[in-house]
Structures are given as C-alpha cells and as structure tokens.
Amino acid sequence: MQKLAGMATREVPGVYAMGNAARRAFSSMTERIPGSQTNVSNGVSVEKGERQAAVDVSIIVEYGFSIVEVSQSIRRNVIRSVENATGLEVLEVNVNVTDVHLPDDDSGEDGDQGHKPSDRLD
Fold first, then answer.
1. Among positive and negative, which fits the CA dihedral 78, 79, 82, 88?
2. H runs (alpha helix) in 1-122
3. C-beta of residue 28 within 8 angstroms of C-beta of residue 67
4. Residue 109: CA count within 13 A, CB half-sphere
5. Pair 96, 56: CB distance under 8 Å
6. What residues does 94 pair with on adjacent strands?
7. What pTM was estimated for this model as a whole?
8. Per-10-residue mean pLDDT, the chain, length 122
9. 3-state secondary structure at position 23
C-alpha cells in the first residue's frame, strides 16, 4: 500500500521529491549502486486496519506551485488509488511539506542538501 500511495503522490504536478533532505541524500547514494531500485515508498507511512487506512506523506514542493492545491491533489489521488486497488476506506491523507525546491537549488544539489534556501548567502 505504501508503493501505491507513493506512486499516486509522485504523479501530482508540483511534487519535486518525497521524504526529507536527509532521506533523499541517502536514497540518491543508494540509487547509484548498480542493480539498486528506486524506493517509491520513500516518504510514505501507512496505518492499516481491517477495513480502513490512514496515509502520511512527506514531500518537497516545487517552487511556484500552491502548497494547498498540491496537497489537495495528493489527497484525491492517494484516496482514489488506494481505495480502488485495495478496497479499504482511506480515512485520512496527511501531507507534510518538508521543503520547497527553488530553481537555483539544482546548481549544487549534491553539496547543498540539507541547507535551507534562507541559509545561503549567494
């Protein structure tokens, strides 16, 4: 179910990445290992009962997108995907925005992970 929710979240425009900066740094290192696979459930936590489920996702939003609209789209997409695939009722989808990706963040991606844009003196 984590994979379903992760894939549904990644489909939403405005989602730059999932998880927090530390987890993304670890994931980017493991993705460089030959034969490793991308973890689509990174940043997703699921609590599942017999008939119901709750989903928590952590994301990094692309600069310029409305956090409210992205969060609402994630909720709709995750609920639709999980309910259609599993038959469980999704009671809640909590969206935790851990960061905003700025366009100039691409220039030093490896060296600047973990630094928030307000920490830079460029």
1. positive
2. 2-10, 21-31, 67-86, 109-112
3. no
4. 8
5. yes
6. 56
7. 0.72
8. 94 92 46 47 88 95 96 97 96 95 70 43 42
9. helix
